[in-house]
Predict the structure.
Amino acid sequence: MPQTPPREPLGSRSEPVSQRMEREVGSAKEAASMAGRDLKQGATDLANDVREKAADAAEEQKDSLNSLVRDISQAVSAAADELGARNQSAAAHYANAIGSGLAQFSGTLENKSVDGMIADVSRFAREHPAAYIGGSLLIGMALARFAVASPPQSSPETSAPAEPRGHAGAQGPLAGPPDASSTAPPAPTPSNEVIR
């Protein structure tokens, strides 16, 4: 029967177990710390990229808005000149004031950064909260009216023409007169009811 070498006690190896465990724990901590630093740096880089892209998009929108405001300013100024030529001096004066105000706003848009404009709006909101809220409401209502007045965007799949008001079969105060294609009798109204 072959003899097996005697077992060494756990603590008798060249490196004690506790030292080996400490070394492994230290190595794991270092690896976790490096992974954490890498993750933090990656998140910072990603946030910076997103911030740069948002700033670029905001600058493009600002330039687009500036172009639109400049065009509207020129149109209003031309209308003011036309009104002045037609001896409509009061209307020409107001249109001229609106046109120059828009031109001034266009210059402000052109010369300020997006961050500067945000700082200006924030300062105005702190100094004049009632005017800021009122202006926000007016702008919101104007945008809502504009959105409602704009023609709906139709896709090729849904390009069927919308029925105009007063279409056949409509009822109510905006309904048009019934036409030959309408099979439903008109709704009773006080004027066509028989009084007995």
